[in-house]
Amino acid sequence: MLAKTLYGFEPLLAKELRNLGAGNVREGVRNVSFEGDLGFLYKANLCLRTALKVFRPIASFKVFNEKQLYQNVYELNWPDFFNHDKTFAIDTTMHSEVFNNSMFVSQKVKDGMVDKFRAVAHQRPSVNTQNPDIRINVHLYKNQCTVSLDSSGASLHQRGYRIATNIAPINEVLAAGLLLTSGWDGTTDFLDPMCGSGTFLIEASMIACNIPANINRERYAFMHWNDYDSELHEKIVNASLNKVREFHHKILGYDKAPSAVRKAQENLDNANLTEYVSIERKDFFRTEKPLDGKLHMVFNPPYGERLQIAAEEFYAKIGDTLKKGYPGTEAWLVTSNMEALKHVGLRPSRKIKTYNGKLESRLVKYEMYAGSKKLKNQTNKHETKA
């Protein structure tokens, strides 16, 4: 099988797959290949936080012209995989010198499929590009063509809990991946001081409690396959829920916009996570650290792309607020505004390249020590000598 992911998340996804029990895990570019049975396919869709799709390859062959493409697709016994009363769509990705139009490739694959259905079942399935039951993925690289069943259907970032969004929501898979990159594991308190529609808060609480990422999702493409086993699927869901753990810290969210607080609360209610998360209407720049002990902070400030702000002044305030009010905090922020980032006025201890949609961004870490850094270093040296 093959799981697709976002740029830079391949090691995270590989680790997730190994932890779930996948075999022969190998990292690719924006994907990770692995082995598992049908039950594992269900588990991967349910539990993976950093996967966008899970594919089950059904054929791989060389193609040098459109006739060969059609013939190889026709030779597959499509009625074995799904019934003619299902709707389908074909997604083609390609880096090929033989073909230069992905729509043309999709059309040829469709012709081979429906002709096979007509020959075997005397009826053919219908195409539905908007909301199909079945998705077929065609990947062409040079002369190699791989045809896969897309087991997920809609992208796995569509978790099923988000009913309300603010102006610039962050993709759920991106949010989960950034949280895991930041080292968030649920062993401290957590704060998102600019929480928007609450995606970081919800993903953080699901990581902390080991709640399956897609527990709120009701539909997957594999449910329309001929070999779908609903009892096995239910067993996998129940077994995954049995691994949910207690969380003994606090997860807090602030936003100064009443509409954002309302939307975040709606999404939180929808995700059934209100017992773990508190959301308040607050301006981060007028706050101080709300709790004693270590605090893990991850947030997505406005970039000035879709939300109009005086970016340089805004980012300078972020630095001032962290410096003055947030000792003992590990603060991570993600932004595509590299110029504004310079005005934070703090030295980042880590800077990681990522993408928010098509925007090249940086995930940046600031360590706010309880005393001064110099004092902390001296204390550490003293402890080492002792």
Could you explain how this protein is built, in words?
With 386 residues, the chain is of the alpha/beta class. The protein has 2 domains: 2-150, 2-Layer Sandwich (VC0802-like); 172-212 and 244-376, Vaccinia Virus protein VP39 (Rossmann fold, 3-Layer(aba) Sandwich). It is built from 11 helices and 15 strands. The protein has helices at residues 10-20, 38-47, 66-75, 102-121, 172-181, 199-209, 230-241, 258-270, 311-325, 338-341, 373-385, and strands spanning 2-4, 23-27, 31-35, 53-62, 87-95, 126-127, 134-141, 144-150, 189-192, 251-255, 277-281, 295-299, 329-335, 350-356, 359-368. The strands form 2 sheets. An 8-stranded mixed β-sheet has the order 2-3-1-4-8-7-5-6. A 7-stranded mixed β-sheet has the order 11-10-9-12-13-15-14, covered by helices on one side. Helix 2 crosses helix 7, helix 3 (66-75) runs parallel beside helix 4 (102-121) and helix 5 (172-181) packs across helix 6. It is elongated.
Strand order, main sheet: write it out.
Answer: 2-3-1-4-8-7-5-6
The CATH class of the largest domain is identified as: Alpha Beta
- The class by helix and strand makeup works out as alpha/beta
- Give the fraction of residues assigned to helices: 25-40%
What is the mean pLDDT? 92
List the helices and strands and how they pair.
Layout: E1 2-4, H1 10-20, E2 23-27, E3 31-35, H2 38-47, E4 53-62, H3 66-75, E5 87-95, H4 102-121, E6 126-127, E7 134-141, E8 144-150, H5 172-181, E9 189-192, H6 199-209, H7 230-241, E10 251-255, H8 258-270, E11 277-281, E12 295-299, H9 311-325, E13 329-335, H10 338-341, E14 350-356, E15 359-368, H11 373-385
Parallel strand pairs: 5-6, 5-7, 9-10, 9-12, 10-11, 12-13
Antiparallel strand pairs: 1-3, 1-4, 2-3, 4-8, 7-8, 13-15, 14-15
